[in-house]
User: What shape does this take?
Amino acid sequence: MSAGIVAVVAPEEFGVPSWDLYELSIPCTVFGKPQPDLADHWYEFRLCGTGETDPEANDPAGFRIRTAYGLEGLVGADTVIVPSVPDACMDGERPVSPALVEALRAAHAAGARMVSLCNGAFALAAAGLLDGRRATCHWLHTAQLARRHPKVRVDDSVLYVDDGDVLTSAGLSAGLDLCLHLVRRDLGARIANQLARRMVVPAHRPGGQAQFIDLPLPPEDDEGLAPVLDWVRENLGRPLTVADMAHRAAMSRRTFYRRLQAATGTTPLQWLLAQRLGRARVLLESTDLPVERVGELSGLGTANNLRHHFLRHIGVTPGDYRRAFPRTSAPAFVPAFVPASVPALAAPTAP
Assistant: This one.
């Protein structure tokens, strides 16, 4: 038994540019490496080649990949991930492989959860799986995706979009955010957080990719905000206001608000709520504490207030969430968010 079959599309005997290996390696690392100390049943992993060759592929920095599965491996998988497509498919110089398009449609029809990382969204769009849906890809290519596939509601401001059975991410490291989100959905926040710590990355980055568009964050802002954000995570059970956080950061409220919003893409109160929900999820998974106590320790207050926020932002009650992720023999508590040397810089979006 496993947590599900994850099938990742990889070009077979194809000149893969070295820079595309990053997106390909993300799901291989997250889902392809067993983690028996984190979960009794990890994922079953398939790397599926397209069976294509490119006689004109002569990029000296390129790679050729052979896989144990072909496209037939997509059907029967619980999750199908397309990390990227060749640049020529984005530019319209040649279509996405018809065999891949048909395999994606068949996998979706069979009930697979469909996922794209970066410009892999062009493959899902070519298969018609993004029609009428909100989706994203790397901000450099969102205008191109919208132009070539006008039925897709393209959002260039987010790191990823969770539309239930179809999920898309922005480029590069946003693919890791989405893969950790999938682990969080499947196995719970505690395991996703522990995996993130193992990978030395934040478990949950508030914000969106809009912050990265032609306006990099000044590094001095990271140094000024990181200590106060870490302090907030350590004191979530206390009543906290924007004034409290600004005072701790030795800034005016206006300056703190502006700098946090620039760094995370969200307001201080929205950022604080995300931290508290994360803490509550971990407590529900890893302890037998009453719901009232979980609300107190996470700073969400009464059981009714905790229930309100869970229903609004997670879609289930705290009790249903605890039943979905029953306590295991894992440690009683782990931090809800991984401490980082810079403020958390990004955030998932789910409708």
